[in-house]
Model the fold of this input.
Amino acid sequence: MKPRIIGLYLPQYHPIPENDEWWGKGFTEWTNVAKAKPLFRGHYQPRIPADLGFYDLRLPEVREQQAELAREAGLEGFCYYHYWFGNGKQLLERPFNEVLASGKPDFPFCLCWANHDWTNKTWKKGSSMRKDSMIMQMHYSMDDHRQHFMALLPAFKDKRYMKVDGKPLFAVWAPRDIPEVEKFIELWHQLAKENGLPGIHFVGYTQNASGRSVKDGHWTLWAENQAAELYNDLTERGFDAVMSAGLGRAQSLCHGKWSMLWFHLKNQTFLHSTLRTDYAKAMQHYYVPEDAWENVYPTLLPQWDRTPRAGIKTDPLVNSTPEKFQASVERALHIIQKKQPEHQILFLKAWNEWGEGNYVEPDQKYGHGYLDAIHNAIENCKAL
Done:
């Protein structure tokens, strides 16, 4: 078994004029990571990078080092978050554009369209240089979809671009937010064929529970397994596959509906608090049987702690270790083992989301532990 593990890759590790304006001169993802503080006994903060340091993605040698670490761990490639807001407006595009133009690193890649508005809720409001809530808003139109495709065509034709069933893999973070998404998908398939490609392999991200039915809008419990409904909803809209995740449902099952409701009610008032969940307990509920479907690509979750971004009003996982992560990777590998080799895909969520405490890059506490966990899990599954 050679699983196709793809690391979701955040490019926000270099200054841009917009972030200078919104958050202060020189702002990057490291700004809040470095100043994070423990909020409760045993809280692992701040998280300090090891081998790569507080890197700047404008440096090609950093990107080469990242690729080498990923390759050694067993990843097939990176899935770069791609910020296209409409009307040709992009943000944080420089690292990927330089990877594309230079041909380096020689490491496979694909793109995930992070099609969500940017608001001042992204990080702690106290650090915001702007008072308005909307920073950058998404805009959609068929003309813009055409422009978007043509802008990405050189990437789709690059020999490093990852393919599924011969088609470039393109993930969409908020697939239900795109108006008339079926027409968008149809247009891109048409443009792909007009430009020498067999089509696009569209992957839509979704949780396996949402708290509300996508069919009739009725409220449900987060603890319910809505996977079949949510996954089928995306494929019925034209997506070829689903990138699945189950953190919200897992937390609900760990705490119960009343604790979850109380947590959310408190954070809408002045009674702010964190909701802590044991990592190993959460991972017992993270996956669902539907993740074994041929067209579902589950996610690997190494850690989760958004306190550097959100402060006390968030829901960190605690007690994650490389050993516990390895166990969850092995479980995910078991889930996908009967799929066709082309579809044995797992998205690592994420490679370098340091501001969400969600990364596998080396840090001062665990070193290469989380990278070794992936490598060891793959080797153990080969031996079965």
About this structure: The chain has a mean pLDDT of 92. The first helix runs from residue 17 to 23.
